[in-house]
Amino acid sequence: MRMISLAGLAIVVGLTPRGVAAQPALSAAQRSAIADSVRTVMDSVFGLSSRPDLDRMYSYFSANTTLLHNGKPEDWKEHQAGTRAFYKTLRSVDMHALAHEIDVLSPTAAVWRGQLSYSFADSTGHLASGIAASTWVLARDISGWRIVHLHMSDLPASAK
Questions:
Q1: What is the number of other CB atoms lying within 10 angstroms of the CB of residue 149?
Q2: Neighbours of 144 (CB within 10 A)
Q3: CB contact at 8 A, 49 and 60
Q4: From CA 42, how far away is CA 58, in angstroms rounded?
């Protein structure tokens, strides 16, 4: 299991580490522009996962992305390999965002949280579908916005 660095946690919760000057508050227009950029990234990720174009989809993720699925940590590289193998068995995939919100934490950190719908049909026609709740933490660096953490949980039957 990997540990999340304290500096990374400080960015996520919006704290300023000791010795780092606080950034000025973002205006509503700046927050809106950042949220629009994050929304575009997430729309691309869901669209590419539905085509599927996993190479391009994974280009939006950091090489060091952390992942929790139903509260359990998963190794990122193993998750990617498992997803690629699973997608090879599928005839069709559909993933899209449902209700969601974007929280802009700073000019370089944002959180997408909400629900997504998924549907997988294998080569025999068997269909698996559902709704998942998820939280995606994105960080912006010189190459653009990258997903650095993903937490996804299947909704309980009573909440669907």
A1: 20
A2: 11
A3: no
A4: 12
pLDDT at 51: 85
> Would the pLDDT of 18 be above 60?
no
Containing H/E element for 119? Answer: strand 109-122
Q: What is the pLDDT of residues 123-146, one digit of tens each?
A: 888 888 888 899 999 999 999 999
How far apart CA 154 and CA 88 sit, in angstroms, is 22
Q: What is the pLDDT of residue 21?
A: 55
Question: Which of 129, 136, 144 lies closest to 34, judged by CA?
Answer: 144
Q: What are the counts of helices (DSSP H) followed by strands (DSSP E) for the chain?
A: 4, 6
115/46 Cα distance (integer angstroms):
12
